[in-house]
């Protein structure tokens, strides 16, 4: 499909495997191999990773914790996931940098737009951690924001299913899969692709969102080449 630079959004849940909590190393290795196969095509890759496998700020806020504090804790969880992903990627020969929106120079670099772009131009995978660095914004919104900042041509969202459905296909056998869907339809039908702020930002900047199953072997590379099963939101 002619991509030169992309952003991959990974949820924290994608790193859990069959566990109920935490990081599942075999799953991390498999996802890292998927990333490596696309990186070998010469495509510049940035990644935004969530932290829901370790801490969910919204759930903590609903239980009585101050929302801002809960969100900051969630951001720190994304840094833990980013460092784990970096370790696995570099173990299989992919040079990687973690750039955090919250300063923590002892473990990773601060997010600076021009630095991130330069890393990708030099063939490094850039993992953007700590969301936007602000409470009240999700990592979905961070993914749309970073994709625009880094001049990415597409936002690839790796999920548990192979596209966007009218309902959860794991719960509703009659759920209809969309091959193509507009930003407006996503918002009007509440299709749960990404949160409203992320969709609005993508629509305003005409950023296509490609939804695919990150757990299907070889799916990431297939989708990059316009093959396999996926949904395009644009």
Summed up, what is this model?
With 234 residues, the chain is of the alpha/beta class. The protein has 8 helices and 11 strands. The protein has one domain: Carbamate kinase (3-Layer(aba) Sandwich), CATH 3.40.1160.
Topology:
Layout: E1 5-10, H1 25-39, E2 44-49, H2 57-62, H3 67-91, E3 96-100, E4 109-110, H4 113-121, E5 125-129, H5 139-149, E6 155-159, E7 164-165, E8 177-178, E9 180-181, H6 183-189, H7 196-204, E10 209-213, H8 219-224, E11 231-233
Parallel strand pairs: 1-2, 1-6, 2-5, 3-4, 3-5, 6-10, 9-11
Antiparallel strand pairs: 7-8, 10-11
Helix pairs in contact: 1-3, 5-7, 6-7
Which descriptors would you attach to this protein?
11 strands; Carbamate kinase; about 230 residues; 9-stranded mixed β-sheet; alpha/beta
CATH first level: Alpha Beta
Supply Rg.
17 Å
CATH topology: Carbamate kinase
Q: Give the low-pLDDT segments.
A: none
The best one-word shape is globular
Number-wise, the strands total 11
Largest sheet: 9 strands, mixed
In order across it, which strands form the biggest sheet? 4-3-5-2-1-6-10-11-9
- Our count of domains comes out at 1
What's the tally of helices? 8
H/E series: EHEHHEEHEHEEEEHHEHE
Average pLDDT works out at 93
Tell me the span between the first and last alpha carbons.
15 Å
Helix content: 25-40%
CATH architecture classification: 3-Layer(aba) Sandwich
Question: How large a portion of the residues is in β-strands, by DSSP E?
Answer: 15-25%
Helix- and strand-based class? alpha/beta
Q: CATH superfamily, please?
A: Acetylglutamate kinase-like
């Amino acid at each position: 499909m002619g991509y030169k630079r992309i952003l991959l959004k990974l949820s924290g849940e994608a790193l859990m495997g069959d566990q109920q909590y935490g990081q599942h190393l075999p799953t991390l290795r498999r996802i890292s191999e998927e990333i490596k196969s696309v990186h070998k095509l010469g495509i510049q890759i940035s990644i935004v990773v969530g932290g829901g496998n370790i801490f969910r700020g919204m759930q903590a806020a609903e239980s009585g914790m101050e929302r801002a504090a809960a969100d900051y804790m969630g951001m720190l969880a994304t840094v833990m996931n980013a460092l784990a992903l970096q370790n696995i990627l570099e173990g299989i020969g992919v040079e990687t940098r973690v750039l955090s929106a919250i300063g923590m120079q002892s473990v990773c670099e601060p997010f600076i737009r021009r630095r991130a772009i330069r890393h990708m131009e030099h063939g490094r995978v850039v993992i953007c951690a700590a969301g936007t660095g602000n409470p009240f914004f999700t990592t979905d919104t961070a993914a749309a924001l970073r994709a625009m900042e880094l001049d990415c041509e597409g936002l690839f969202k790796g999920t548990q299913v192979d596209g966007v459905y009218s309902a959860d296909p794991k719960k509703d056998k009659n759920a209809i899969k969309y091959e193509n869907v507009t930003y407006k339809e996503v918002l009007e039908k509440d299709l749960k692709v990404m949160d409203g702020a992320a969709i609005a930002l993508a629509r305003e900047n005409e950023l296509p969102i490609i939804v695919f199953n990150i757990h299907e072997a070889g799916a990431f590379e297939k989708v990059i080449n316009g093959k396999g099963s996926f949904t395009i939101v644009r």
